[in-house]
């Protein structure tokens, strides 16, 4: 079985200094930047994830670039999963090294199905401006990431931009203070599906909090979503009943996520054993 999970706001979290000091040894450092803590993980979650990795295949799945993923030392250097998916599915790491065949296939698919990046950049330049956009990056030669002042963002203009981008083969996702613009063929589902075929695993459990995770959540055999983030807010507005949410929100939602993964893994393993013996 595969456990494919988003990282930021699903397994790892930033915490204000006062809150981190208050939580003490209930959390551990997941990431450092210039010697300063950038993100944490629940200590109990880390211990349970270590255990689960002896029983199933854990695949981190993140919109972060390869470099940003490697910065999360708790996962990339200590847990060292065999497989990791970065760049929203645009890159796959196997034992820490990029899968060059997957990279080439993504480049070809983007070229075939999405408008050229320069045309997209022209549209972005018309809508995004310094009044509310703090910084912009073109990540891993695949997608755009913008840090914004959410309160000043002109929602109607951005909605219209998103609709035009959709027709150009690109998707828009607003996550807190970030706006991502990504080719539609660069997604987490396709990368996980590729690794599912490669590993010959039968089932996938998935978790994630954002709209960029939705395509993966919908693909998975089992899923659980933390009670915060875009998917939770969307459910509050639409009440679809399509997703299972944790009771807890914030950093300790991870404990519930991993306990759910553990219970599903045990249940499915037992069902497989019964099926094989009958």
TrEMBL record:
Amino-acid biosynthesis as UniProt keyword: no
Gene3D superfamilies listed in its UniProt record: HAD superfamily/HAD-like
SUPFAM superfamilies to which the protein is assigned, alphabetical: HAD-like
Residues annotated as signal peptide: none
UniProt-listed Pfam families: S6PP
Keyword Hydrolase set for record: yes
Residue span, Sucrose phosphatase-like domain: 2-217
Keyword field: Hydrolase
A single MF term (Gene Ontology): hydrolase activity
Protein's recorded name: Hydrolase
Organism: Paenibacillus germinis
Lineage: Bacteria, Bacillati, Bacillota, Bacilli, Bacillales
């Amino acid at each position: 079985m595969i456990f494919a999970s988003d990282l930021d706001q699903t397994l790892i979290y930033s915490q204000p200094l006062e809150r981190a000091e208050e939580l003490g040894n209930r959390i551990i450092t997941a990431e450092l930047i210039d010697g300063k803590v950038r993100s944490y993980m629940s200590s109990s979650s880390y211990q349970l994830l270590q255990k689960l990795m002896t029983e199933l295949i854990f695949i981190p799945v993140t919109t972060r670039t390869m470099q940003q993923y490697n910065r999360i030392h708790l996962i990339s250097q200590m847990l060292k999963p065999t497989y990791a998916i970065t760049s929203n599915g645009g890159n796959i790491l196997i034992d820490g090294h990029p899968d060059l065949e997957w990279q080439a296939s993504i480049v070809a698919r983007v070229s075939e199905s999405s408008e050229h990046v320069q045309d997209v950049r022209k549209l972005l330049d018309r809508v995004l401006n310094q009044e509310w956009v703090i910084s912009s990056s073109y990540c891993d030669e695949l997608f755009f990431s913008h840090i914004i002042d959410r309160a000043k963002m002109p929602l109607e203009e951005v909605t219209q931009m998103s609709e035009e981008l959709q027709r150009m083969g690109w998707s828009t996702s607003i996550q807190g203070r970030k706006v991502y613009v990504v080719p539609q063929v660069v997604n987490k589902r396709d990368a996980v599906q590729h690794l599912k075929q490669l590993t010959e695993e039968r089932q996938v459990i998935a978790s994630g909090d954002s709209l960029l995770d939705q395509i993966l959540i919908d693909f998975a055999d089992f899923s659980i979503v933390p009670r915060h983030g875009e998917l939770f807010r969307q459910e509050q507005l639409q009440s679809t009943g399509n997703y299972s949410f944790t009771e807890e929100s914030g950093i300790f939602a991870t404990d519930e996520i991993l306990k759910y993964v553990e219970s599903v893994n045990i249940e499915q393993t037992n069902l497989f054993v019964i099926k094989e013996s009958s």
